[in-house]
Write the structure tokens for this entry.
Amino acid sequence: MTLELFLQHFFNALTLGSLYGLIAIGYTMVYGILRLINFAHGDILMLGAYFVFYGTTLFCLPWPIAVVVAIIGSAVLGVLMDKIAYRPLRDAPRISALISAIAVSFFLESLAVVVFTGLPRPVHQPEWLVSIITIGGARLMPLTLLVPGVTAILVAGLLYIVYHTKPGLAMQAISKDIETTRMLGVPVDKIIALTFAIGSALAAASGIMWALRYPQIHPYMGVFPGFKAFIAAVFGGIGSIQGAVIGGLLLGFIEIMTVAFFPDLSGYRDAFAFILLVVVLLVKPTGLFGEKLKEKI
Amino acid sequence: MSEVKNTQMRDRLLTCGVIALLFVFLWWACGDMNRDLGLGLPRAWRSLNGYEIQILNLVAVYGILAISLNIIYGFTGMFSLGHAGFMAIGAYVSALCVLTPDQKEMMWLIEEILPPLANLYTPFWFSVILGGVVATLFALAIGIPVLRLGGDYLGIATLGFSEIIRVLIVNATSITNGSLGIKGIPCYTDVYTSFIWLIIVTFCIVRLLNSNFGNVLKAVRDDEIAAQVMGINVFHTKLFSFCLGAFLAGVGGALLGNLLTTIDPKMFTFLLTYNVLMIVVAGGLGSITGSILGSAIITVLLEWLRVVEEPMDLGFVEIPGIPGMRMVVFSVVLLIIILYRREGVMGMRKFSWNGFFGFFRRLGKKEEKA
Amino acid sequence: MSNVIEVKNVIMRFGGVTAVDQLNMAIPKGSIVGLIGPNGAGKTTAFNVITGFYTPTEGDVFFNGKKITGTPPHKICGLGMARTFQNIRLFYNETALENVMIGRHVRRKHHWWGAMLGFPDTSREEKDIRQKAEELLDRIGLSEYRDELASSLPYGAQRRLEIARALATEPSFLLLDEPAAGMNPQESLELMNFIRQIRDEFNLTILLIEHDMKVVMGVCEHIWVLEYGKLIAEGNADAIRSNPRVIEAYLGEDVNNVED
């Protein structure tokens, strides 16, 4: 393999990994607080992409405005989802919340099929994002640099919110002990809603970039990225934001590089994440940065 | 004591009676009664048509699948989304067993079939059980790493598994014939076969769940820590329940494959899992009776709801059909049930003849009052 | 071997916090003994170490002379140890009878397929489990609640059902975590008799954690006192009552006036 080719693979992996990382953050934050796998998270990603697609084509909005509208719309949707489907089940058996989550996911997917039709739609990529540039011998699209860049900015912002603002500290407190935090007078439900809003906004952002990078959208496009991002979150250590990002990046590299070095395996690419999950659970179940969660006896 | 014996005897007789009635109904439904007895029944008494019989078959197969998922969900409190995957395994294993070597040679166009499989030819019942066994082996492979940690990630792991099984089926052309699928599977599943399987499965599972093993499963569902203190190996119990569910899913998948005579990887998407999930939740988590009732109700409703997707002509105005609307309706129903009536139709109750008569007695009293 | 349980130099740390520090206990067979201490002293942690929920950071636990450090709870139960919980943990969706039957599971010999296919041996065992569970409910005085859901039982009955369920596993050593919590003086008195009664009837050794000094002093032959994870005193009721360190630890609670 030439250096040039390797660099191309490297940037592809970086892009894919950043996207996984961004999606994984939403999973890890919600799981960290509610111990709930939000199955509908991947579908928010899909809706975010559709919002931008329809915003730019149907309503002729300029790209930046369409993106902002899509992200805000997805955040609102995330909050609504929590309010309608998850909050009433906080004290119910855990399995009810999980069924509710899968029902929401099912609903969003089938609604998307009805509204947007089940056919995949091509996405128009703006010219300046895909015109090839040459850096140090590697031929790249600016997009493959843009995605990791945007991800880095978003993650930095999020880390600031979580570690340096009051709502962020409240989030950390809730993930340690929800009942005690409630007794201390923290508006727990509001903080959880905020968590859903942030997670959904990040999912929408990654959905938009996903649609630009792999220029096609369809109602089930969120399923596999969602599944893999969750594995990335487990790999990094569930509950840890840094872990989610690093897990996402590593998963991106594993997928791209394995196929790059062993082209025969390309048909099985989607199975790598699953094997990774099994290995992580067997070898280091707390992930790279996770803490052990123990039930109180 | 003799009173207890008498009740037991009565219940057994009643159960046998109901099963006999069911088979008389099936005998009539598929038109055999007409033929066997040479009855010239009037048109109004005609037997069910092929489409309706297919629905009957589906009710039985979905009944088995719903029971299998209910063991995992309702009785052990675990969340699995891998049913489509286990069904796919069952269907493919069974199909590979019952196809004749000649058929296999003709069908595998892209790549030659793997030699040991080419000459595999087994009886139908064996192929169904083998389908279940292979599904169980896969369940072990997933269950051991995931359940060892308490099983929080079981939902996502099985969802991934069932999607990846399809990737494997598409790619392992020499075994599965890839995306072309397998056609011309001999149709062994007639109404008798499917209902006999349903009855056997129900009988075995009800026996198991009524024994103390059923209580142990529920103990793990309700409080894992207390269960450990009672000397219950929580990991083993969960793994057992998960594998039992997977086995029956494999059996159900094998029956389904033989029923439809054609299988391909596209059939086994997670929509199939959702269907079964819907039946279990609607029927009642933790109620086998509910699962069987649910499978009858939901399967018929699913067919009936096809109306929504077809264009409707009301004489003066024509409403265009909305493809995919069925699934929207179903997901909303699922959400409403889980939010407002978590216990489904049956709750955790199980059917008993005493309860059955008691229900009618109470109903009678209510009417008297009114 | 006359000691049922020996705890040797057990240290239990969680992160930077030492919940139990250098605990040593030896519990003679057939005795009723107590573990007391102010809130957060590490009593329940000690229970969790003994019953296998926590593996101690250092030190070992011996049960009938056999080292059980690191053995999972369900295996320890199989060896003959049972416990109750501070906040009652019944199987609330099950009837009282089913709760006790679940306790019998650990002693069963036949496998699940027998139950599924209705083998005669398994059916006989099934009947035996049910019968033994019914007997036990009778002996504990809960037969009136036989078919009631555990969640619908009155509080006192729930406490007793939890003990009945523990007894169903045929233990030789029973740990009770605050059995008198939420009981009035009359009920506490009955509880003391009840504890002695089950010790004699079931040949048990009993270790209890209790805040109700009257119960502890009244029923325990030997008492250990924990404070901040450290053992500060041990001895019989009189020795504990007059121990200055114990009095200091319980400042505000009048250890001397518990007889009245």
Remarks:
- The mean pLDDT of chain A is 89.
- Chain A has twelve helices and four strands.
- Strands of chain A lie at 121-122, 133-135, 138-140, 216-217.
- The longest strand of chain A covers residues 133-135.
